[in-house]
Amino acid sequence: MPMDAVRTGALDRRAYGVRHDWQLDEVQALFSLPFSDLLFMAQQSHRRHFDPNEVQVSSLLSIKTGACAEDCAYCPQSAHHDTGLPRENLLPLEDVLQAARQAKAEGATRFCMGAAWRSPRDRDLDEVAAMIQGVKDLGLETCVTLGMLSEEQTRRLKEAGLDYYNHNLDTSEEYYPEIITTRTYQDRLDTLQRVREAGIHVCCGGILGMGETERDRAALLMELANLPQHPESVPINLLVQVEGTPLAGTAKLDPLAFVRTIAVARVLMPASRVRLSAGRAEMSDEMQALCFVAGANSIFYGEKLLTTENPRAVRDRALFARLGLRMAGSGH
Q1: Which SS3 state, helix, strand or coil, does residue 311 take?
Q2: DSSP annotation of 305
Q3: Contact between residue 116 and residue 62 where contact means Cβ atoms under 8 Å apart
Q4: Tell me: the pLDDT tens digits for 74-106?
Q5: Cα torsion 170, 84, 165, 319: sign
Q6: Which tens digit of pLDDT belongs to each residue from 278-332?
Q7: Given the DSSP bridges, would you call strands 233-238 and 206-208 parallel, antiparallel or unpaired?
Q8: How far apart (Å, rounded) are the C-alpha atoms in residues 193 and 167?
Q9: CB 217 within 8 A of CB 31
Q10: Whole-angstrom Cα distance, residue 108 to residue 303?
Q11: CA distance linking residue 134 with residue 299, whole number of Å
């Protein structure tokens, strides 16, 4: 996609459709657009596929906290980092269902459950399956993130009625070894393939502000957009720096660079839900408003995202009211 064609508006029509053949120079050209041109392009893409004034709301609960065997440099739950986070066992079923009831009462339509595992043990899946079934019985969509999965484990989750599986790529394949060494990029792609082949929707995105370059952000989005089928949900996280993790003290990302990434994600994956995920507690209302203009149309709701702070629901509802946004399917 030549830069002059982008800037003059003579953009290849394919950029507004669903593609799986993006090249890195094309994606970098999008990042290089004047800010208003990029947001205009993202808005056009967004309005072709969604109500621009509707936001889907999910809630996320940590069902098993701490002592994860992975060494993800951003994660306070890693056993490799001393963050003072206590290790907790799998929550009782009723505690999970009570949290799901509360999430639904506050307007969430999807309930996500996260467990700090490298990969689940088969015996753990019986309890997780009961949680999935119980949450579905409440009328909520279900999502879990449990680490890497085998084919049999993926099938078991599908049988339990799982709607979505979250497994983020986190960053570009090139930068990935700087962030994680205990599993490979291909490991993550293999789990995504198993999830897709089992008929479960894919939730997959990344984390910004980990010291990566704009090229890394472009490469991450290209990887997601060139999957055989786009993830139905694309969570874009802003690094929450936690003392004791290797990334504590990393230079903060320019807020407009974050907004640009949201906009490019919307152009590359026009029919996917692009979700503002971790880091919203540090975002101003104005930054979040720009993200919604750039094509974000989903958020995580509730006071915590696994172990880190998140805006209170009352603040989110107030922001939605100021922006004229509605929560999808919740009646709120």
Answers
A1: coil
A2: E
A3: yes
A4: 877 765 565 555 666 788 999 999 999 988 888
A5: negative
A6: 888 889 999 999 999 999 999 987 554 444 555 677 888 889 999 999 988 754 4
A7: parallel
A8: 11
A9: yes
A10: 13
A11: 23
Alpha-carbon span 226 to 216, nearest angstrom:
15
Angle at alpha carbon of residue 174, lines to 11 and 297, rounded to 5°: 50
SS3 content of the chain, % helix, strand, coil (to 5): 40, 15, 40
Catalytic residues: 68, 72, 75, 112, 143, 203, 275
Angle at the Cα of 192 (from 186 to 194), degrees rounded to 5? 105
3: enclosing H helix or E strand:
helix 3-8
DSSP code of residue 200: P
**What pLDDT sits at residue 258?**
97
Task: Tell how strand 164-166 and strand 141-145 pair up.
Answer: parallel
Separation in Å, CA 89 to CA 167, 246, 305 = 21, 25, 17
- DSSP-assigned states of every residue in 218-285: HHHHHHHHTSSS--SEEEEEEP---TTSTTTTPPPPPHHHHHHHHHHHHHHSTTSEEEE-TTGGGS-H
Q: How far apart are the first and last CA of the chain?
A: 42
Which 3 state secondary structure label does DSSP give 184?
A: coil
Among 310, 322, 323, smallest CA distance to 108 is for 310
Pairing of strands 110-115, 298-301: unpaired
> What's the token pair of residue 201?
């929707």
The span from the CA of 115 to the CA of 149, in Å, is: 13
| Coil vs helix vs strand at 126 | helix
